[in-house]
Here is the input.
Amino acid sequence: MNTFESAVMARLGKDIPDDVIVVNTCAVTGEAERQCRQTIRKLKRENPKATVVVVGCAAQLNPEKYASMPEVDRVLGNHEKLNKEILASAQKKMVGDIEQPLDLPIVSDFEGRNRAFLQIQQGCDHQCTFCVVRFARGHNKGLPVDQVIEQAKAFAQAGFQEIVLTGADVASYPHGLVEITKCILDEVPAIKRLRYGSLDPAALKDDFVSLVKNYPQVMPHFHLSIQAGDNLILKRMGRRHSREDVIELTQKLRAVRSEVVFGADFITGFPTETQEQFENTKKLVEEAGLTHLHVFPYSERPGTPAAKMSQVPMQERRARAADLRSLGDKMYAMLLKKMLGQNVSVLVENDGMGWTENYLHVILSKNYVPGKIVDVTVKGIKDHALVG
Ligand code: SF4
Here is the structure.
């Protein structure tokens, strides 16, 4: 989502002088914010004459904190950063209403990338107890269908064969995730591969399963925002799915496309989580056969209900994260082994690497044109990647 918005800002700001540096921030965890501030200081140190403009969620949530940094010259909110005039203006601080309708200019270039991100949705109507996204992005809003199709056509025109539909809660796209996917693939046949950002498992119903069955362009890799594998912890998180729902969803999708694989977001050490409840998360990874894990130790976010709950010590949160990551590595390694000898279709990236349909990295033993889709046979495994 931020990658897409940065591409939009790059396009809007193409006439802005080179000595302006825009830092597009994230506030999903304390660590993310720490890295933003570290980056701001480093950039100013390396470019003392540059004008530093801080934008994005961290700026939207706490403009004073960034405006008071000596390295920072301007602070813009999530809506203002996508406005050409405001981006180019000298306004010191503009952080306004995030409930404005989603209206984005067409972009056609992602520096150095061969997959295009398409932000179709923004904001969120849910109230997960650990999350600040909805404070930074507002309520659920969607890009109008005709604008989505126009953007997809522009990407196809620019030579992209793979797009990733993204948003804060993309599965809740107001005009229907299944409907917009069919629209794009039916109206823009040059798009051969379509993926999604993180998907809320509670929002994926039988029509999504039929879509996956009938549209081979929908890539067989789904990243689910599961967060935990224990039902009481899921309840305390304010999530709308149970561990049984996740197992049922993964079984239904595998029943229509046996090659489907799943990634998942997990938070370890959520307030009140016991070791036993954490073990339920590990069991879910195995029961649902999850292979691409993104694991974060719980991070208190200001103003969220979970920050007021009884906290698990940080050391314990980190230990559980390490434990879960190593389980994820094992599951991923087993999947790599299973791919040996198979013929796979690979989207070629710039560095002699590429991506399979089920989102595995491939080291290509021949030079291919970046952006092309090529068929190779998996001959080996090296550095957590396939050799094709
Ligand atoms: S669904 Fe996602 S964006 Fe929405 S409140 Fe929950 S974690 Fe935050």
